[in-house]
Amino acid sequence: MLIIYFVDFGVTKIVIPTPLRPYLGELFDLGWLYYGYMAAVSIFCPNAINILAGVNGIEVGQSVVIALLLMLNDTLYLFPRSEPMHPATDSHLFSLYLLLPFLGVSLALLKHNWYPARVFVGDTYCYFAGMVFVVVGILGHFSKTMLLLFIPQIFNFIYSAPQLFHVVPCPRHRLPRFVARTGLLEPSTAKFTKTLPQPVQAVMKIMDKLGVLRVWTDENGEVTESTNLTIINLWLVWFGPMREDNLARGLMGLQLVCGLLGLFVRHRLALWVFTSDNISIV
User: Fold this and answer.
1) Rounded CA gap, 119 and 111, in Å?
2) Domain ranges of the chain
3) Which residues pair with 16 in a beta bridge?
4) Closest Cα to residue 273, out of 25, 14, 20, 24?
5) Beta bridge pairs of residue 184
6) Helices 231-239, 151-164: crossing angle, 10 deg rounding
7) Which H or E element spans position 227?
8) Element (H, E) at 189
9) Are 132 and 116 in contact (CB under 8 A)?
10) What is the DSSP string of 158-184?
C-alpha cells in the first residue's frame, strides 16, 4: 500500500494550522517521515481492533460503526451545495467503493456473531477490518480524520499500555469473567505474585480513587490484585456486571458517540485553526 501511495501520489506535505503559518508557511514537507507515520497507522489500526475484543459481537460491531461513520464522512464530500465539486470527491468515492461491500459482509457476520453467537471471529477479521480502514484512510487522503473515529481504540491502547509493556503483570487473557451463577460478565483481574514498585502502586491507588481501576491490597497496604486494564473491564467497573450483549451494545454506543464527536471536531472545530473544510469550501 505504501508503495502504491509513493507511485500514484507521493504527497508528503501537511497543511499548517493558521497560527503557525508565519513561522512554517502554509505547507510543510515531512518527506520520508510521512511514510513512517503511515506505516505506524497501518500497524496501529488492525491491532487496535484486535485488543478491543473478546466479547461476542464487539470486534465486528465496532468495525460496523467505524465503517458507517466513514461513509457519513464520505457523503459530506459527495453532495456539495453548489459547483464546483470538492477536489477530494474522487478519494471519497474510492472510500465508498471499498466500504460498501465491507459493510455488507460485516453486517452478515455480525448477525451470526451476536450473542448467543454461532460464529466466532478471530485475529483474521480484526486485521482484515483494520487494513480496510487503513487503505481507505491513507489512499483516500483522510488518515487524520479516520484516527478521530478510533478514539475508543486509542484510549484502550493507552489504558492497556502498562500491561502491554509489562509495567504491570499481564495475564495471557484479559477477557471479562463469566459468572455461571448469574449469567453475567464481571471484570477480570490480575493477581500479583511479586511486589510492584511503589510508584506503580501509588498510581494504581490514585486510579482506584478516581474510579478508573479497581485494586485490592493486603494488610500492609501493598497492591496484590487489580482489574485488567482494558476498556471492556473498565466498562464493567463503571456499570457493574451485565450480560454479554448489553456490554457489546454499550461499547458500540460509546464508539458511535466518540465517532460523531470526532466528525464534529473535524468539520466544525477544525475551522478555528484551518481556513477551509468540505462544508465551507462550497
Assistant:
1) 9
2) 2-164+244-272, 177-238
3) none
4) 20
5) 179
6) 100
7) strand 223-227
8) strand 189-191
9) no
10) HHHHHHHTTSS---S--PPEEETTTTE
Backbone angles phi, psi at 27, to 5 degrees: -125, 150
Which position has the grid cell 482484515?
128
> What integer is the mean pLDDT of 116-120?
90
Cell digits for 119?
460464529
Give me the count of residues in the chain.
282
Residue 217 dihedral angles phi and psi, to the nearest 5°: -125, 160
Residue 275 pLDDT level (bands cut at 50, 70, 90): low
What does pTM read for this prediction? 0.89
Alpha-helical (H) ranges within the chain are: 2-8, 21-24, 32-51, 58-78, 89-113, 123-139, 143-148, 151-164, 198-210, 231-239, 244-267
98 CB-contact burial (10 Å; exposed 0-12 / middle 13-18 / buried 19+): middle
HSE toward the beta carbon, residue 167, CA cutoff 13 A: 13
pLDDT, tens digit (0-9, with 9 covering 90-100), for 7-60: 455 667 777 777 777 777 777 777 778 888 888 999 999 999 999 998 999 999
Integer CA distances (angstroms), 191 to 27, 150, 194, 268, in order: 51, 30, 9, 46
Give me the long-range contacts of 272-277 (CB less than 8 A, separation at least 24). Answer: 273/17, 273/18, 273/19, 274/15, 274/17, 274/18, 275/18
Check if the beta carbon of residue 245 is closer than 8 Å to that of residue 239: no
Q: Do the Cβ atoms of 52 and 230 come closer than 8 Å?
A: yes
